[in-house]
Amino acid sequence: MTETLTSAQVPPVAGSASAARTSLWRRLVKNPLGVASLAFLVLVALLAALAPVLAPTDPAVPSAVDVLAPPGGDYLLGADGSGRDILSRLLYASRLSLLGGLLALTVAAALGITSGLVAGYYSRWFETVSSWVAGLLQALPGIVVLLAARAVLGPSIWTSMVIFGILLSPAFYRVVSAAVSGVRHELYVDAARVSGLSDERIIARHVLTVVRAPAIILAAGIAAIVIAIQAGLDFLGLGDPTRPTWGGMLSDAFANIYRAPLMLLWPSLAIGLTCIALALLGNALRDVLERTSTPKKRRRGAAPATVEVRSEPVVVHDELPGTGSGEELLHVDGLSIGYDQPDGSLTTVVEDVDLTVRRGEVHGLVGESGSGKTQTAWSILRLLPPGGRMVSGAIEFEGEDLAKLSEKAMTRLRGRRIAYIPQEPMSNLDPAFSIGHQLTEPMRVALGISRAEAKGRALDLLARVGITDPQRTFAAYPHEISGGMAQRVLIAGAVSCNPDLLIADEPTTALDVTVQAEVLDLLRDLQSEFHMGVLLVTHNFGVVADLCDRVSVMRNGRIVETGPARSIFADPRHAYTRSLFAAVLEDAEPRGELTTVPVATREGAHS
Amino acid sequence: MSDRLLEVEDLVVEYPVKGRRAAPLRVLKDVSVDIRAGECVGLVGESGSGKTTLGRAVLGLAPVTGGSIRYGGRDISHLSRRERRALSADIQVVFQDPYTSLNPAMTIEQILAEPLTVRDVDRAEARRRVRDLLDQVQLPADAGNRLPREFSGGQRQRIAIARALALEPRLIVCDEPVSALDLSTQARVLELFKEIQERTGVAYLFVSHDLAVVRHLSHRVAVMYRGEIVEWGDGDQVTSRPQHPYTQKLLLAAPVPDPVKQQQRRAERRRLLTAQRQAGQPAGALS
């Protein structure tokens, strides 16, 4: 397995320099912690490598006259209990300690990463067996095993480090197999299989890159542990007494702690600083690597990177008979929303938005992703993500400016007077609590009613939103119900406190069309029953046509066209609105039958 | 041999269920469908209907329990990995999610060159082909040096299409390729699919939940419901004048972007549901 892996690691397109890797190095160099720790480790490694050149004397030659000589003179750091030069011993000891650590780390990484890759990628029986073995190894008391090994195999730092490496390999195994089984179901791995890549190639190209970051971070941490444990073993006198190690020097110094306390300092510094440097390097690597390895997903409604804001007049349609009258429930005036950037500037995502929702009216806010429609909805609820804030404008709800309300007053308003239906029903239900609990809790807090009363109300509501067995759904947990059902539950929760204004953010986008139709019916019925004002955020013109009395079309953070739904659908005037209507496929011609069997039958060209 | 490029006959796909005595989960039940060279066959259904599984079975990514999938007359339902790899030049894929279908750590050029270099196309030739592919999907030539995260959803989907085209396949399985895209982007990507098909004669198995999208692109349409094909035939007829009660329900459930027409459609849908209920058919039942 290892052999096939290494031969496959040679990238097929050697010339294309891995942009990710070079920039990774550059970023690490920019990280002060990373540079400092890396520089220290390189220095230690260099000192160790050059020990034969640098060491003033032979570290093993004792001198009876110089026992415990103080620092200075011939011995820069003094001499130890046998009259050997401490500086020379320290230099030589770092060779052994570092090499020993490296050996244990290599064994652990080689075993753990290889088995983790195989287990994560193929799973089946290998995964079962290997996780048993890993569990067994982790259950073994490491020090005891090392003691036993020393008793049987003799005091060799190399054997004990190999054994220690094996004992540590489960750490790599677990991290790697988890990362691999995560990536195995990624679509790009499927795409690579369909492209005709062999398993070895897929692992080398697509899987190893994912494993790289966690494995490197783990390695830094493990290295620190290995150095510390190894020093501990030597300190206890379980290493090879004939060769200098940091732990062994510590042990010697400890024996002379009353006569020459300073001696304890040098090996302690070496061990301590190396471990700290490794731990800090691990931290720096994590900061650098994990920022690169996460693909940036831009979800619908997330703040767009840049928005070009151009001032142009909003196309306003005249009111039709029967529209534009009635009590104004919500009036948004000149709303602008910005996000503070790390460099101190402000990215504006919504600019100068005016919006009115009347009682008993459904106002649709339509636009494509990044148009700012969800940001507008969130700002009305005062629930903008961290970093986002209202830059200017007013949000008046029944004459009261929401932007000026205290957080406490706003909390009293949310849920009671202004309710919210989110886009993804499942992620808005807490999997740890039953549906009933999640429905009754807000009612008891908001309306101050008893548990029994809240339950009765919740059951009524569940029946009202078309759930056939309210009792069962009430007792169920979110994972036991379907997406459509979850959205009904959330709608029931939203109307449970008789709100005046309902803000629905893409309430049917995650649902199947047949379920969507039912939920739209439900929303329409509830809206007229409770005589609510509704702000409906959507990208679907069908949903708008079905439900909305009034439409505002948003683009790049601005409203470009607004008016009664019927007149906008009949006569879209803004070029952008027209282009959106043109993209609608509903009235498009069907493709028709396949008439000509076209060109190119490249039979056998690729077999 | 007929002019059928792909023939799926009585296909059964089952997934094992945890627990020793549990019956396996039957995701596809005796599904039969066929695709001619240069044809686009639309596959419509709701989530869990098995439409994606059918696409994955054709790609060799789902276990075939029964029935057969024949490509060019040859049964490909139980190929070894090696044989499958040889076939990959002929059958390609475009997945739904443009965010997870491209490896975030690879440049566009590496992504597009990958299927070529495994077939020992030399580097200069591969680079030339990559430029050509980017041009075919209307992306700038310098896109090759950039990473997927620098592109929008629509552009990423173009990259995925370019990757599928790299080996000049004869069939592309398109698994909801436009459902993650904005309306206007969706229209442009669909035009690209159409243009490529007319130019190269590649066949599509086009999986989607959106009847309007499928109507726009498909010569013939199959409607799936709970692992079975309930209606199958001419695209115009199936998507405009469906016979099966489930397809009728599906068609009327999609809201029309016109308040007046939508009001009519809503009324029609209510009538249909009432009629179906009176006829004793459970929602979306099979005739």
TrEMBL record, chain A:
Classification via CDD domains: ABC_NikE_OppD_transporters (cd03257), TM_PBP2 (cd06261)
Alphabetically ordered keywords of this record: ATP-binding, Cell inner membrane, Cell membrane, Membrane, Nucleotide-binding, Translocase, Transmembrane, Transmembrane helix, Transport
Domain of life: Bacteria
Entry's Gene Ontology molecular function annotations: ATP binding; ATP hydrolysis activity
A cellular component annotation (GO) from this entry: plasma membrane
A GO BP entry: transmembrane transport
Keyword DNA damage: no
Record-linked InterPro entries: AAA+_ATPase (IPR003593), ABC_Ni/Peptide_Import (IPR050388), ABC_transporter-like_ATP-bd (IPR003439), ABC_transporter-like_CS (IPR017871), MetI-like (IPR000515), MetI-like_sf (IPR035906), OppC_N (IPR025966), P-loop_NTPase (IPR027417)
Main location: membrane
Family affiliation: Belongs to the binding-protein-dependent transport system permease family.
Protein name listed in UniProt: ABC transporter
Native organism: Modestobacter caceresii
UniProtKB/TrEMBL annotation, chain B:
PROSITE patterns cross-referenced by the UniProt entry: ABC_TRANSPORTER_1, ABC_TRANSPORTER_2
Domain of life according to the entry: Bacteria
ABC transporter domain segment(s): 6-251
GO molecular function, one term: ATP hydrolysis activity
The keyword Zinc-finger appears for this protein: no
One GO BP annotation of this record: peptide transport
Alphabetical list of SUPFAM superfamilies matching this protein: P-loop containing nucleoside triphosphate hydrolases
Keyword vocabulary terms for this entry: ATP-binding, Nucleotide-binding, Transport
Region (Disordered): 258-287
Protein family (similarity comment): Belongs to the ABC transporter superfamily.
Name used for this protein in its record: Peptide ABC transporter ATP-binding protein
